[in-house]
Amino acid sequence: MKRFVVSVFTVAGLTALLSFMLTAEAVVKTDFMAEAAQASMAEVALSNLALQKSQNEAVRQFAQQMVTDHTAASQELATLASSKNVTLPAEMDSKHSGILRKLGGRSGNDFDRDYMKAMVSDHEKTVKLFQKEADKGTDAETKAWAAKMVPALQGHLQMARSTHAMVQGGERSGGNGSGNSGGNMNSNMDMNSISNRAGNSSGRSNSNRRTNTNTSENANSNANRP
Q: Which end of the chain is more exposed for a tag (fewer CB within 10 A), N or C?
């Protein structure tokens, strides 16, 4: 009887532990999917705003890439979540809603800088989120999907950083461009000057040679006269 009671408690304990582990796994999986969904939702919303407001072609190209890629990622995630009976959030979180409102009040290069700054920050966090799931995820399918997405997200981050650096220097680039142009003009002028000097030097050398030749010929002629 005693052994029976122990066995019952052992089974109950194992059942509770298994239930806890499954619940914990479900929570982790749900948390990742929810955060991934929020990230993609924010990328699409902010980038659609950029397509409306930005006049910078590089920023617009980046924004269009984000809308295309993250819309596709959201669709894949929705399919995966449905197969796991996970309900994804339907709205952006308050943080990204605030960023969207802030960007709505920006224009010109101020908008471009703030938008690209948000893109860099978001993609840094998103790459870490997906890399962690790819490395330590417990659900095989979710882990595989995260691993598949990591290279594309790293590419987005690299694009975001380079575009952000470009718009940060937007006001200075004109000055730099002017400076470079001046440098090129000076370089061309120097090369022309060197070429002219070389030509003049060559001309003078030829002239001197002709003069020396003529002098030598005259001297020989005078020496041969009776």
A: C
At 12 the pLDDT is 54
What's the rounded Cα separation, in Å, for the pair 103 and 98? 9
29-171: CATH, from 3.40.50.11440, 3.40.50.1110, 1.10.1740.10, 1.20.1260.10: 1.20.1260.10
Q: Following DSSP, what letter does each residue of the chain receive, concatenated?
A: -HHHHHHHHHHHHHHHHHHHHHHHHHHHHHHHHHHHHHHHHHHHHHHHHHHHH---HHHHHHHHHHHHHHHHHHHHHHHHHHHTT-PPPSS--HHHHHHHHHHHT--HHHHHHHHHHHHHHHHHHHHHHHHHHHHH-SSHHHHHHHHHHHHHHHHHHHHHHHHHHHHHTHHHHHHHHHHHHHHHHHHHHHHHHHHHHHHHHHHHHHHHHHHHHHHHHHHHHHHH--
Q: How confident is the model at residue 10 (pLDDT cuts 50, 70, 90)?
A: low
Structure confidence at residue 30 as a pLDDT band (50, 70, 90): confident
Q: What was the pLDDT predicted at 26?
A: 45
Beta-carbon-side half-sphere exposure of residue 193 (alpha carbons within 13 Å): 6
